[in-house]
Design brief:
By secondary structure, this protein is mostly beta strands. It is built from 1 helix and 12 strands; from the N terminus they run ββββαββββββββ. The strands form 4 sheets. It has a 5-stranded mixed sheet with strand order 6-12-11-8-9, with no helix packed on it. The protein has a 3-stranded antiparallel sheet with strand order 5-7-10, with no helix packed on it. It has a two-stranded antiparallel sheet with strand order 1-2. β11 and β12 form a beta hairpin.
Length: about 170
């Protein structure tokens, strides 16, 4: 609202209507929202491509020296992704809390390429890795299986390191 002096004796109140974008926000605020909206869209695109451990299931019991299959699933996405590599590790947590999967992966069970493929329709692309549970005595009880995936997304491209983990129970 503006007050305009029409003459010495009269004042007029002039209302200036604001233009609203999408009926929600004044347009002059849109320039401040553009970076926020862009960031949220990018984060959503990255999360849409986030891989996860298909199996073994969280809490599964495994034996030392046993071969297990680790399935790493990557949801299909319209945004391009270039796979760089994958590391699978097992960290003993029997007598202390496990370190976060993005800080330490423990004993490396696999490192190398990751090339998920469609196996069922409908379904998501995945790749299975057969790894061996370490035989060392300190692998008893609670352990953390972690999968760390490095990939590039978008036209830029932008580097992304994902870390996923589940808890296993290692028995002799």
């Amino acid at each position: 609202m503006h007050i305009r002096l029409l003459s010495i004796n009269r004042l007029a109140v002039v209302h200036q209507p604001q233009t609203f974008a999408l009926g929600l926000l004044p347009t002059y605020n849109m320039k401040f929202l553009a970076p926020i909206v862009s960031a949220l869209v990018f984060i959503g695109a990255v999360n849409a491509q986030a891989s996860y451990i298909g199996y073994p299931a969280d809490g599964t019991s495994v034996k030392r020296g046993e071969q297990i299959v680790v399935q790493v699933v990557r949801p299909n996405s319209i945004m391009g992704s270039i796979e760089v590599g994958l590391a699978i590790g097992l960290q003993s947590c029997a007598d202390r809390p496990c370190a976060p999967a993005n800080q330490a992966i423990g004993t490396v069970l696999y490192h190398g390429p990751y090339d998920p493929e469609f196996h069922e329709k409908p379904g998501m692309p995945y790749q299975n890795f057969t790894v061996t549970v370490p035989t060392a005595d300190y692998f008893n009880g609670k352990a953390q299986l972690s999968v760390n995936r490095f990939h590039l997304i978008g036209a830029g491209p932008y580097p992304v390191l994902e870390s996923n983990n589940i808890t296993l129970n290692v028995v002799p």
